[in-house]
Amino acid sequence: MDMEGLIMQILNYNLEAFIPYDEDNIEKFLTICEDAIDNITNDEKPKFKLKSAIHELLVNSLEHGYKKIRVRFLCP
């Protein structure tokens, strides 16, 4: 199979983290995730989708998780 010209496609990813419920730790978590995403691919479309998913996950867990510190996300 000729691999030239193919681009990486993220088929699924799984994230599980413990985040102490304070502003500094939440900000550090987002920075770590964004740095990891930046190292995975140079393609802006998957970067945007992954970063958006992380932000949405964190917002939802904080708003609806009643200050739970365990964050879990799986995207097929």
Would you write up a description of this structure?
The protein has 76 residues and is α+β, with helices and mostly antiparallel strands. The protein has a domain of 45 residues. The protein has 2 helices and 2 strands; from the N terminus they run βααβ. Helix 1 packs antiparallel against helix 2.
List key phrases describing it:
2 strands; alpha+beta; single chain; 76 residues; elongated
Sequence stretches where pLDDT stays below 50 over 5 or more residues: none
The end-to-end distance, rounded to whole angstroms, is 25 Å
The mean pLDDT is: 73
Strand line-up in the sheet with most strands: 1-2
Total DSSP E strands: 2
Q: Choose one word for the global shape.
A: elongated
> Helical element count?
2
Q: Report strand %.
A: 15-25%
Portion of residues within helices: 40-55%
Main sheet properties: 2 strands, antiparallel
Q: Roughly how many Å is the radius of gyration?
A: 14 Å
**Category by helix and strand content:** alpha+beta
Order of helices and strands: EHHE
Describe the protein's topology.
Layout: E1 13-18, H1 23-40, H2 44-64, E2 70-75
Antiparallel strand pairs: 1-2
Helix pairs in contact: 1-2
